[in-house]
Protein 1
Amino acid sequence: MNLHLLQHPQSWLSNLDGRTKLAMFFAYVLAVLFTKPNAYWTWLSLAGLLLILFTLARVQIRWIAFRLVPVLPFVALGALGVLLGGSKEMFLQVTVKMLLCVGAAVWLSGTTPFTQLLEALRKLKVPSLLTIMLSFMFRYLFVLAEEAIRMSRAYQSRCPRKQTLGDAENIGRLAGALMLRTYNRAERIYLAMLSRGFSGEFRTLSVQRMTFADIVFLAIFVGLVTAIFVVTQ
């Protein structure tokens, strides 16, 4: 299974250092989270800034929908919980903020491959255990998905009929077998890595470097976010 479910579009933003884009992402998210309730002009301005970033990155609408649609049910569920337990103003505030933050995350993933994000985190001195866990999760999530697909195909070939509630026991057994296979494969992979000299740290030949263009673009972006936050609040 391809690690990039849908190839992200290439642009000049893709050539910026991962640390630059991470800093832009966190600056944007902090600005969104610290906006006051009913800050409609601030939200609209930040949404416009995000739209400009998508345009500069040449991100296609189909690509945005591919990444955004799976997250929308969770956003709707969280917003519904706020609506049931709070006011309509709180519901609007939480919904808008979640959408803006998710949109910023989609932009980050669209301009930076996950491997570059991990490298940027390592260069920012994030604990190595966390980056290693994220790396393994990203890589072997696809292996687990492939194993689940093979087991499901084998089950369907032996039980070619529409599934009912009576098949819940069989499906539960399949899930248990999948977890056992996952555990056994993880142990084999770890032993294979140790036999090849793995010492708890990934070594790469990356050439990512912070350049003057990175610093200038980051300064301009932070200045725009600060200006929007100050003027429209």
Protein 2
Amino acid sequence: MKIIQTFDKLLIARLNETVQSLHAERLPEIFKEYSFDEVALELDCILSKGTHEIYVAEEHQEPIGYVWFEIRRAEGNAFKKPSSSLYVHQLAVVHTKRGAGYGKGLMEKVVERAKVHGIHTIELDYWCVNEEAKRFYEHQGFSIQREVVRKEI
């Protein structure tokens, strides 16, 4: 497995179909249907900010999955101390390659990049209906820090 940084918005837009389609299927009241063109345009904007990084896992030069994260730094205020974290927005591995260590390899890259940036906290979230993600992240050593609740009116 080879993990490399990419700025190829078209590659990520293609790989994103797995994530976006899953979200739209499970939570259609929140997520839009996958659109390659819309995702590519949004990624162009995201990557121009300079605080986001995307890495692709490859096997025999074939993309297997990716991880997209953002470096977040917050100034302190009267309520909270200054903080920095590496926030994982998305991690995806193609269905046929799940369970083969690609997700773990991508998360190891996240840890490596956090250390390079002098960051000691990695954060992410996943939807409660995504039991597979919950098990994966627990297995990677993540623990629940807070819960977000919602009420439709």
Protein 3
Amino acid sequence: MSEATTGGDGEDDIVSVNFKLTESFLEEIDDTWQGRGFNSRSEFIRYTLRDAVEFPTFDRDELVALLEAEEDVREGLTMGADEAREQFGTDE
């Protein structure tokens, strides 16, 4: 595990964290953890948070850039790899 999840020395105290959710979202969480075979809601939430810390996905700037690139593709402002190789005379 990463230092972020174990505290580095493995001797961190367990603490409780409270947060608010809507009842409907909590029901979705309960359906999810039970359907995926977790032993408890807490285990599922810890797993999910650990996964988010260890394997972060796109940050906002990366997402914006991805959406802009998608718009360029739709507007025909980009070219495929084969077209670029042909235009610039490069080999595969």
